[in-house]
Amino acid sequence: MPAAYSTDLRMKAVEAYKKGKYHQAEIAEQFGISIATFNRYWRAYNAHGDLSPKKYHHGRHAVLSGNNLNDVAKLIAKKPDATIAELCEVYNQTHEIPVGRSMMHRACQKLKANYKKKSKRASQQQTDRVKKSVMNLAE
Predict the structure, then answer these.
(1) Angle at the Cα of 102 (from 96 to 105), degrees rounded to 5?
(2) What's the CA dihedral at 76, 79, 81, 82 to 10 degrees?
(3) Which of 1, 21, 50, 101 is the most exposed place for a label (fewest CB within 10 A)?
């Protein structure tokens, strides 16, 4: 996006038009702006007197932010081995805002949460045999 014209140039164009000596097209040509741009400046000046450029906000606001992001952090703390799909399922059951996997993935990235995909043998991790071998390795 190109840089905005300075507030000084905007004011000079409006002031020149207020004097009544020139038409809008002549002022636009004199200041090197389009007629539509000058009309926008004139409408803004008449509406609220402020000719400063508007701030541009990039993209949409995140759905999972603030309190919702804290709720995701709590879900991850309760069940750290949950997959993204499982987190979505639990979140959607408790909240009104439907959340997809990509949204949940971005929320996990914001939280810098480490998560792993469950392996095919994930169900075996809860068996006594595996728990004993893990305990033996820890000692």
Answers:
(1) 95
(2) -80
(3) 1
pTM for the full model? Answer: 0.48
Beta strands in 46-129 (DSSP E): none
Total residue count of the chain as it appears in this document: 139
Domain membership of residue 41 (yes or no) is yes
State how many domains the chain has.
Answer: 2
- What pLDDT is attached to residue 56? 75
d(CA 80, CA 57): 34
Whether residues 67 and 103 share a domain: the answer is yes
Domain span holding position 70: 60-116
Backbone angles phi, psi at 104, to 5 degrees: -65, -35
* pLDDT over 90 at 65, yes or no: no
Tell whether 37 and 68 lie within a shared domain.
no
Q: Which of 17, 14, 66, 87 is nearest to 44 (CA)?
A: 14
Residue pLDDT, tens place only, 84-109:
888 999 999 988 889 999 999 999 89
